[in-house]
Specification:
Number of strands: 0
Number of domains: 3
Number of helices: 16
Strand content: under 5%
Oligomer: single chain
Largest sheet: none
Order of helices and strands: HHHHHHHHHHHHHHHH
Shape: elongated
C-alpha cells in the first residue's frame, strides 16, 4: 500500500486529511448509535414524512394519514405491519415534548452516546419502576457485598489465628479437658487427629477484634427494615433515662454508670467488654461523666504518659 505522502500532499496535510475523514466516520457511527436507541437505523421524522420543525398538529396529521395506509386492519401485507410498528414508535417519541426534545438533542450531539442513552432509558423505564423496588434491590445488592466482604475478612483472620501457637495450645488444653488426659503427658504430646482437631475447633469461639463473625442482623438491609423499631427503642430509652435521672433524681445503676464511662472515654463496646472487672470498677468510681472529674483524669493521664517517657 502506498504511503500517504505519495498522494502528492504534504505529510502534515495528509495527516489532517486522514484525521478529518476519521472524525467524519466516527461522527456518523456515533450519530447512528445515538439515534438508533429511538427509531433503530431510521430517522423518526423521515418515518412520518415531516421536517424537524414540524409542530404537534402536523405530527399528529402525518401519523393518522400513515395509519390509514399501513395499519394491519387496512393493509394485510406483512411488510406494512413492520412499517406501521416503526411509524407508531416514531409518533410516540415525537408527540411528547420531553422525548422529542431528547431525540433532537441526540441528533445534535451524537458524540454524547452514554448521556443520550441514559436519558432515553430514564424516560421510558424510570417512571415504570417502583422506587421502593429499586431501593430494595440496592439494599439487597449492597448487603450481599457487605456480607461477602465480612465473611472473607473473618475467614482470613480465623485461618491466621489457627496457625498461631496460642490457638494450638488452647486446642490441646480443650482436648485434654474433654478426654480427661491432663495427667497423661505422652498422649498430650501426640499429634492431634485432623478430624478431632476440626471438632474441637468448632467448640472454640474465637473473638477477633475488628473481624467479628458476619451476621444478617448487622447488614444494611436488615438495619433499614428494623430502623423504625430501633428509633422507637432509642426514644423510649431516652425518655426513661430522663424520667429516672432528671425527674426522679434516682442514683445511677451499674450498667448506666458503665455506659456513661464508656461514652466519655469513647471506648468501643467490644473493647469495654474485654476490660478487667476491677479496672472497670475503678473507672466507674471516678465518675468521669462529670466535667471536673474528666478534666482531672485527662491531666493525670498526661502526667503518667510523661513519666513513662
Amino acid at each position: 500500500m502506498a504511503p500517504i505522502s505519495s498522494l502528492g500532499l504534504p505529510v502534515s496535510a495528509s495527516h489532517r486529511f486522514v484525521l478529518a475523514v476519521s472524525w467524519l466516520i466516527l461522527f456518523s457511527l456515533l450519530s447512528q448509535i445515538a439515534c438508533g436507541i429511538y427509531c433503530d437505523e431510521d430517522d423518526c421524522y423521515d418515518l412520518l414524512g415531516i421536517s424537524q420543525n414540524a409542530n404537534a398538529s402536523e405530527i399528529k396529521k402525518a401519523y393518522y394519514k400513515l395509519s390509514l395506509k399501513y395499519h394491519p386492519d387496512k393493509n394485510p401485507d406483512p411488510e406494512s405491519r413492520k412499517l406501521f410498528v416503526k411509524i407508531a414508535n416514531a409518533y410516540e417519541i415525537l408527540k411528547d415534548e420531553a422525548t422529542r426534545e431528547q431525540y433532537d438533542y441526540a441528533i445534535a450531539h451524537p458524540e454524547e452516546v452514554f448521556y443520550n442513552a441514559a436519558r432515553y432509558y430514564h424516560a421510558y423505564y424510570g417512571h415504570k419502576t417502583d422506587p421502593r423496588i429499586v431501593l430494595l434491590g440496592v439494599l439487597l445488592v449492597v448487603s450481599a457485598l457487605q456480607y461477602l466482604n465480612r465473611h472473607s475478612r473473618y475467614t482470613q483472620a480465623i485461618n491466621m489465628v489457627k496457625k498461631t501457637p496460642a490457638y494450638k495450645n488452647r486446642l490441646r488444653a480443650l482436648e485434654l479437658e474433654r478426654n480427661g488426659l491432663a495427667s497423661n503427658k505422652k498422649k498430650g504430646n501426640k499429634q492431634m487427629d485432623k478430624k478431632v482437631e476440626e471438632e474441637l475447633s468448632n467448640e472454640l469461639e474465637l473473638q477477633i477484634q475488628g473481624t467479628e463473625k458476619p451476621s444478617i442482623w448487622s447488614l444494611f438491609a436488615m438495619q433499614f427494615i428494623l430502623l423504625p423499631y430501633a428509633l422507637g427503642k432509642m426514644l423510649l430509652w431516652r425518655f426513661c433515662w430522663f424520667w429516672r435521672y432528671q425527674i426522679n433524681k434516682a442514683p445511677l445503676t451499674w450498667d448506666d454508670a458503665c455506659y456513661l464511662t464508656q461514652a466519655c472515654l469513647k471506648i468501643p463496646h467490644d473493647a469495654w467488654q474485654n476490660i478487667d472487672k476491677s479496672a472497670k470498677q475503678n473507672l466507674v468510681m471516678k465518675r468521669l461523666w462529670e466535667k471536673v472529674n474528666m478534666e482531672n483524669y485527662q491531666a493525670e493521664m498526661k502526667r503518667e504518659s510523661k513519666r513513662r517517657r
